[in-house]
């Protein structure tokens, strides 16, 4: 087994079990402790695991919030498929909202050029992506900019959202579970996300399977507040049924 294959297997085990330990992994893969430690270090550098004493924990379980560029480098193929599937949810014309998130950033890149949209976003990176597009009326929400996520938050953004109404809000989340709803580490971002969903006729969540079953500090919506969840094929058996029982349709691509 190549190192890259072993590291992907380790990451999958960590996400499934919530934790991995060096001793168990060394025995399972028949390699030295030092080899496993190097694997865990490599995965930590990619922003998907956090080293702890004797092993590692996936960042989703820690409530740790990786920077946008780190998140953008993880689950790239899944995010591309999710973003492409989200194109089916665009209105023929009108206003849409794009939340700050790496998967939604990919949706922004794929927006069609033959239709005119008003796009509301609090994401600086998405705004820069859409600035050259002449078919898009870009509305950038103001406020305090969180450098970690490049998202505008606080009162200025909330006031603008209170006076806006869009056809579809494409939302991102750090975690989603039937019990806790949609959650994110930062309360200020949670407030803005809550206002985004309230401003939309329909709410569509774009989230890869690693977000499902994880809970973070600040709740901003219930699962029933969503109309559709678009995720990937890695979603564990039964989770889609649990989510759909709470209200939204689930589409795995």
UniProtKB/TrEMBL annotation:
A Pfam family matched in the record: DeoRC
One term of GO molecular function: DNA binding
Cross-referenced InterPro entries: Carb_Metab_HTH_regulators, DeoR-like_C, DeoR_HTH, NagB/RpiA_transferase-like, WH_DNA-bd_sf
Keyword Transcription appears in the UniProt entry: yes
Coiled-coil residue windows: none
Domain of life: Bacteria
UniProt keyword terms in alphabetical order: DNA-binding, Repressor, Transcription, Transcription regulation
Domain HTH deoR-type: 3-58
PANTHER family on file: GLYCEROL-3-PHOSPHATE REGULON REPRESSOR (PTHR30363:SF4), HTH-TYPE TRANSCRIPTIONAL REGULATOR SRLR-RELATED (PTHR30363)
Function in brief: Repressor of the lactose catabolism operon. Galactose-6-phosphate is the inducer.
Name of protein: Lactose phosphotransferase system repressor
Originating species: Nocardiopsis lambiniae
Lineage: Bacteria, Bacillati, Actinomycetota, Actinomycetes, Streptosporangiales
């Amino acid at each position: 087994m190549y190192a890259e294959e072993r590291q992907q297997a380790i990451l999958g085990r960590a996400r499934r079990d919530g934790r991995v330990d060096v001793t168990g992994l060394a025995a399972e893969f028949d390699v030295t402790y030092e080899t496993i430690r190097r694997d865990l270090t490599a995965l930590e550098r990619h922003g998907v695991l956090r080293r702890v004493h004797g092993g590692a924990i996936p960042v989703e379980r820690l409530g740790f919030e990786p920077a946008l560029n780190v998140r953008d480098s993880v689950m790239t193929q899944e995010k591309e498929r999710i973003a492409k599937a989200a194109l089916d949810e665009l209105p023929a014309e009108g206003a849409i909202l794009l939340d700050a998130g790496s998967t939604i950033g990919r949706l922004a890149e794929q927006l069609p050029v033959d239709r005119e949209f008003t796009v509301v976003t609090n994401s600086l990176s998405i705004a820069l992506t859409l600035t050259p597009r002449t078919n898009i009326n870009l509305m950038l929400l103001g406020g305090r900019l969180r450098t970690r996520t490049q998202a505008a938050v606080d009162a200025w953004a909330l006031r603008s959202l209170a006076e806006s109404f869009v056809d579809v809000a494409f939302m991102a989340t750090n975690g989603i579970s039937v019990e806790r709803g949609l959650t994110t580490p930062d309360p200020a971002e949670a407030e803005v996300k809550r206002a985004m969903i309230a401003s939309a006729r329909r709410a569509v969540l774009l989230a890869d399977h690693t977000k499902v079953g994880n809970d973070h500090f600040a709740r901003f919506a219930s699962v029933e507040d969503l109309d559709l969840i678009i995720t990937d094929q890695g979603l564990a058996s039964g989770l889609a049924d649990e989510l759909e029982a709470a209200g939204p349709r689930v589409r795995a691509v």
